[in-house]
């Protein structure tokens, strides 16, 4: 499907791997001019190379989304490279502090909330003026199934992602009349470096192979993933791409689950 956004410019965070990287690839294929950002410039350059974009179609600038100063620098670089962006995809995030509530330190809480909630808010605040320029904008926030179905061994992450959903929904009320549509996407158990690390840790703890760790995780921890497998990052990028597009012109304030049924409620 032609998404009708070939003249648009997009910024994607958390884009040196996983869902962000696959979203960059999808938008590049749609003819969008793309800026990818993540923490490490070298890894970002490698990621950009793997995207095999046309000359001038892709730019890569490192930034830390938790830092106001770093985001201001990123904005200056983006402006110089492509001008104002029309599309922002916020995909940066971490699993954060894990364990039961009594096992998580104050630092574990504050760091997870900083990266998974405050950082995304700072990123949006920095680029909001761009998105409001020109009467057409798309903002997609990557949340998680954990936002509406919390798991008691990762409460800081759940709380941060619930905050992301509330933030996105509230924001969608303010700017839609100007043409800026705001939506969220909530994946579950996608095959990215984030869940690779989780499954390696689980395999080490249980003394089993990573494949066995994935199987037991699906059986015991995610029984409602009816397809009984990890999702592919492209399967999330497809939905993000749609929400970034002209095809989603009447979609605002929504939360699209890409979780194969993992969230048990309707
Ligand atoms: P990933 O680990 O491949 O990508 C996340 C990226 O965020 C990394 O490249 C990392 O360097 C970057 N990042 C972390 N802290 C940052 C900071 N302070 N500043 C800038 N960049 C930073 O993982 P994945 O799976 O692609 O995650 C993307 C988003 O999807 C995250 O927000 C995650 O919470 C969410 N998600 C992922 C799920 C999964 O199963 N993989 C399930 C539900 C949500």
TrEMBL record:
GO terms for biological process: monocarboxylic acid metabolic process. SUPFAM superfamilies: NAD(P)-binding Rossmann-fold domains (SSF51735). One of its GO terms (molecular function) is oxidoreductase activity. Gene3D superfamilies: NAD(P)-binding Rossmann-like Domain. InterPro entries: NAD(P)-bd_dom_sf (IPR036291), Sc_DH/Rdtase_CS (IPR020904), SDR (IPR050259), SDR_fam (IPR002347). It comes from the Bacteria. Keywords: Oxidoreductase. Belongs to the short-chain dehydrogenases/reductases (SDR) family. PANTHER family: 3-OXOACYL-(ACYL-CARRIER-PROTEIN) REDUCTASE. This is Ketoacyl reductase. It comes from Marisediminicola antarctica.
């Amino acid at each position: 499907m032609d998404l009708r956004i070939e003249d648009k410019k997009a910024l994607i965070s958390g884009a040196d791997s996983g869902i962000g990287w696959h979203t960059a690839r999808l938008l590049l294929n749609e003819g969008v001019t793309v800026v990818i950002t993540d923490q490490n410039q070298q890894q970002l350059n490698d990621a950009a190379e793997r995207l095999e974009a046309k000359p001038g179609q892709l730019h890569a600038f490192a930034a830390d989304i938790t830092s106001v100063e770093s985001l201001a620098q990123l904005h200056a670089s983006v402006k110089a490279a492509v001008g104002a962006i029309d599309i922002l995809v916020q995909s940066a995030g971490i699993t954060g502090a894990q364990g039961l509530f009594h096992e998580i330190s104050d630092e574990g809480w504050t760091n997870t909330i900083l990266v998974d909630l405050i950082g995304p808010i700072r990123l949006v605040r920095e680029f909001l003026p761009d998105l409001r320029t020109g009467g057409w904008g798309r903002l997609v926030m990557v949340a998680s199934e954990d936002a509406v179905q919390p798991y008691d061994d990762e409460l800081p992450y759940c709380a941060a992602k619930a905050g992301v959903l509330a933030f996105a929904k509230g924001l969608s009320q303010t700017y839609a009349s100007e043409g800026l549509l705001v939506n969220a996407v909530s994946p579950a158990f996608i095959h990215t470096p984030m869940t690779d690390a989780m499954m390696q840790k689980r395999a080490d703890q249980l003394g089993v192979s990573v494949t066995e760790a994935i199987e037991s995780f699906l059986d015991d921890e995610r029984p409602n993933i009816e397809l009984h497998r990890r999702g592919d990052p492209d399967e999330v990028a497809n939905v993000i791409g749609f929400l970034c597009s002209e095809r989603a012109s009447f979609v605002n304030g929504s939360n699209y689950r890409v979780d194969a049924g993992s969230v048990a409620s309707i």
